């Protein structure tokens, strides 16, 4: 069973004699670390290259503060779906219903809030619960009914799409209450003195940098305490500098406009929470186990049916959250909402390092894959590329990512 819950980097040769990377200095260490961790860093490097290329092609428009903020708002629902989809794929399954479930929850929210004047917090809680129930029903059929996930979720895709049409009667319904709208397009309030920046966003950025650096140092110490291979010190310091620079850049860009979108905070909580579950909890290890080697997992006492059930329940709840975010951002529920969302989420997971055979993938990888697609979409829109060619380019990006994964496996195997 192979997982990439914690990347392990074999150390380079300890001395200058025959050391290869050691003889090349810092640059040699960088190349050696990248070569040995190509699966982990490949898409991150690709994201950086895509951002750089589109920033040049659009004369810097891609990295304007307003556009960066819009990039977060426009792709937040796909990133939410990608987190849940990554867990489903790691467990060795697939979910084709999430786009239709997203639309259905948006329609349900509109009926509750707009038609029936239900208080928006109660309606949001009810929609999340219904999304969880929908995912649980599919999980029961897959885990305990023995029906393949492809068939169950394909049926779910048709059912939820039909229910969306029934609930909305083929019409767009809105607008939503102000509180619901803020979930999808609201920003944190202004606080403190006038500094030409959003002070609360600057504070959050500094806290995030401190937390990430502290976590990286703790992880390194823990790995060394268990005699695991770690990055060479110079390469580790270079990694910390790069992470700090990236977070600081995004923080300044967001603080130069309206500040931190509320949905970005929601997404941040999800990333931290699910990353912890997948890396440090028994449940997360069981998800990797049943996807990596189901017979061995069963022999080890893993309750595979129970794990599968909760994976799909979780996917339903995240699809409901994505539906609320989309409806809030558009300020209306539409029968055509959610089209191809499932394909975007699946593509994000595979671009982010998931394996078709299951057992491999990370939450952060799903976010990176979603950002790759988001930057591609945004950059091509800024360049006025037609939707036909956009589909072609995104298809080629997905094919290249999966092809790279296959090539990397063969190279490691050899």
Question: Nutshell version of this structure?
Answer:
By secondary structure, this protein is mostly helical. It contains 16 helices and no strands.
Order of helices and strands: HHHHHHHHHHHHHHHH
Strand content: under 5%
What summary fits the major beta sheet? none
State the helicity in percent bands.
over 70%
Low-confidence stretches: 1-23
Q: Provide the residue-averaged pLDDT.
A: 87
Q: Which structural class best describes the helix and strand composition?
A: mainly alpha
- Tally of contiguous helical segments: 16
Rounded to the nearest angstrom, the distance between the terminal CA atoms is 17 Å
Q: Give me the Rg, rounded.
A: 22 Å
Shape: globular
Polypeptide structure, described:
- By secondary structure, this protein is mostly helical.
- It is 72% helix and 0% strand.
- The chain contains 16 helices and no strands.
- It has helices at 25-36, 38-57, 65-90, 98-115, 120-143, 149-168, 178-185, 199-225, 233-255, 262-280, 282-292, 294-299, 304-330, 341-351, 363-382, 387-413.
- Helix 4 crosses helix 13, helix 5 packs antiparallel against helix 6 and helix 5 runs antiparallel to helix 13.
């Amino acid at each position: 069973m192979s997982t990439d819950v914690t990347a392990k980097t074999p150390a380079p040769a300890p001395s200058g004699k025959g050391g290869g990377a050691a003889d090349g200095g810092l640059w040699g260490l960088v190349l050696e670390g990248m070569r040995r961790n190509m699966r982990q860093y490949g898409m991150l490097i690709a994201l950086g290259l895509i951002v750089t290329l589109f920033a040049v092609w659009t004369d810097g428009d891609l990295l304007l503060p307003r556009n960066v903020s819009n990039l977060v708002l426009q792709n937040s629902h796909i990133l939410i779906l990608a987190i849940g989809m990554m867990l489903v794929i790691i467990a060795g399954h697939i979910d084709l219903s999430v786009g239709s479930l997203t639309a259905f929850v948006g329609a349900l929210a509109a009926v509750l809030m707009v038609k029936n004047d239900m208080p928006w917090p109660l309606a949001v809680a009810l929609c999340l619960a219904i999304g969880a129930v929908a995912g649980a029903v599919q999980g029961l059929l897959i885990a305990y009914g023995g029906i393949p996930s492809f068939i169950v979720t394909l049926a779910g895709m048709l059912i939820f799409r039909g229910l969306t049409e029934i609930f909305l009667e083929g019409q767009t319904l809105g607008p939503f209450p102000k509180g619901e709208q803020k979930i999808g397009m609201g920003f944190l309030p202004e606080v403190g003195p006038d500094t030409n920046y959003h002070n609360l966003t600057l504070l959050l950025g500094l806290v995030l940098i401190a937390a990430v650096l502290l976590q990286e140092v703790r992880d390194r110490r823990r790995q060394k305490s268990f005699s695991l291979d770690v990055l060479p010190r110079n390469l580790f310091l270079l990694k910390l500098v790069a992470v700090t620079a990236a977070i600081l850049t995004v923080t300044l860009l967001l603080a130069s406009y309206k500040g931190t979108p509320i949905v970005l905070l929601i997404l941040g909580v999800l990333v931290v929470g699910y990353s912890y579950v997948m890396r440090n909890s028994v449940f997360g290890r069981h998800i990797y186990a049943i996807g990596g080697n189901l017979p061995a997992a069963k022999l080890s006492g893993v309750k595979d049916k129970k794990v599968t059930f909760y994976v799909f329940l979780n996917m339903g709840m995240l699809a409901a959250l994505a539906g609320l975010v989309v409806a809030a951002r558009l300020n209306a529920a539409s029968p055509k909402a959610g089209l191809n969302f499932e394909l975007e989420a699946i593509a994000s997971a595979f671009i982010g390092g998931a394996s078709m055979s299951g057992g491999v993938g990370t939450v952060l990888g799903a976010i990176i894959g979603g950002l790759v697609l988001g930057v591609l979409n945004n950059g091509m829109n800024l360049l006025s590329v037609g939707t036909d060619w956009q589909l072609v380019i995104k298809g080629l990006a997905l094919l290249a990512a999966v092809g790279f994964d296959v090539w990397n496996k063969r190279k490691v195997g050899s």
